[in-house]
Amino acid sequence: MPLPKAELHLHIEGTLEPELAFELATRNGVELPYADTDELRKAYQFEDLQSFLNLYYELMAVLRTEQDFTDLANAYLARAAAQGVRHAEIFFDPQAHMARGVGMGTVVEGLWRALGDSEAAHGVSTQLIMCFLRDESAESALETLEAAKPYLDRIVGIGLDSAEVGHPPVKFREVYDAAAALGLRRVAHAGEEGPPEYITEALDVLGVERIDHGLRCLEDEALVARLVRDRIPLTLCPLSNVRLRAVDVLSEHPLPVMMDAGLLCTVNSDDPAYFGGYAGDNFDAVRKTLGLGEDRLRELARNSFVASFLEHDEERRARYLAEVEAYDFR
Ligand SMILES: [Zn+2]
Fold first, then answer.
1. So what's the pLDDT on residue 8?
2. Are 93 and 161 contacting, i.e. CB atoms less than 8 angstroms apart?
3. How far is the C-alpha of 278 from the C-alpha of 7, rounded, in Å?
4. Which residues are annotated binding-site positions?
5. How far apart are CA 100 and CA 106, in angstroms?
6. Beta bridge mates, 7
7. Which residues does substrate bind (predicted)?
8. N or C: which end of the chain has fewer CB within 10 A?
9. Alpha helices in the chain (DSSP H)
10. How far is the CA of 321 from the centre of ligand 1 (A)?
11. Which amino acids are annotated catalytic?
12. Helix, coil or strand: residue 308
């Protein structure tokens, strides 16, 4: 039995495996420029952020109907459950779908058909976090929030993702204020490729409760002290960091340094179909490569539930935390 954990940094579009991409392409009559799944899997060996993003957006074309989103989410939940994920807070990118004519309702209702049944079907509780693409305009983010209003009972919070540099958090002040007024929780990607100032700005200007990635906080001692003092969770994604060259090799990943500093770190998979593994694979990788012992692994699992948005169900959180404490590594 794998270590129980929550996954807090997972883009559902990044869970599209080559086999499902081909299945959906056939179902929807979408032509993919790859002969078969083997050739497509080779394309997943991209070299940098831009070639990853090109492939990521190209393959989204196969997602057309509610059923496609349901199938995508069910495939993820089955894999996550097999790796010990007990609770998942799942990002989705509505702008990437609306731009190609797939409506907010199709995306949310389709995902919800899987998420609503997830506890019974997979033993995984779930929440949905709507992300804005930060390389799109602030106006587009506001329109997206407006389009989501009929579905807010299914969305726990908002996030900010895609290309970070040149798109500081302050650009999205207005939409974050509007989301806060609607009672939505707030997170944002910051300090992955962008500078530590973006982390500070996400906290001060956007009022975020968690930082996605946040690796570069280490460049600012005062910021680290603040993150430790205020118990701000960081959702780290070690295998993603290597594939997108935020760190050169996994053995140089600063996770142990960050934990030693007292930061509230969690380990997640980001876009697992593309980055070489799901949540449990990321845990295995840091255990083997960074030499994390049982205490550290248990701490990471505990942190994932502490950092999750389970305030509406503290009983559940306590149950998950008890599972972590009772876990036997042998
Ligand atoms: Zn991400």
1. 98
2. yes
3. 10
4. 9, 11, 189, 270-271
5. 12
6. 88
7. 271
8. C
9. 18-28, 37-43, 49-59, 66-82, 94-98, 104-115, 118-122, 138-148, 173-181, 196-204, 221-229, 238-243, 255-260, 272-275, 279-290, 294-306, 314-326
10. 25
11. 192
12. coil
How many of the other CB atoms lie within 10 Å of CB of 137?
A: 13
Residue 47 has pLDDT above 80, yes or no: no
- Ligand 1 centroid distance, CA of 27 (Å): 28
pTM beyond 0.85, yes or no:
yes
- Six-digit token string for 164: 């970070």
pLDDT at position 240? 96
Residue type, 206: L
Collapsing DSSP to helix, strand or coil, 144 comes out as helix
Per residue in 316-326, pLDDT tens?
999 999 999 99
Class of domain 5-16+63-325: alpha beta
Q: Among 32-41, 46-55, 188-197, whose mean pLDDT is lowest?
A: 46-55
Which residues contribute to the annotated binding site for Zn(2+)?
Answer: 9, 11, 189, 270
- Token representation of residue 186: 């707030």
Only one residue has tokens 């009983």, namely 315
How does pLDDT run across 87-97, given as a tens digit for each residue?
Answer: 999 999 999 99
Helix (H) or strand (E) holding 212: strand 210-213
For ligand 1, the distance from its centroid to the CA atom of residue 236, given in whole angstroms, is 9
Return the number of other C-beta atoms located less than 10 Å from residue 51's C-beta. 12
Annotated binding site for substrate: 271
Record the tokens describing residue 224, joined without a space: 């680290």
* CA 18 vs CA 14, 34, 36, 72, 114: distances in Å: 11, 10, 9, 12, 20
Question: 133 alpha carbon to ligand 1 midpoint, in Å?
Answer: 11
> pLDDT for 149-187, tens place per residue?
999 999 999 999 988 889 999 999 999 999 999 999 999
Average per-residue pLDDT for the chain: 97
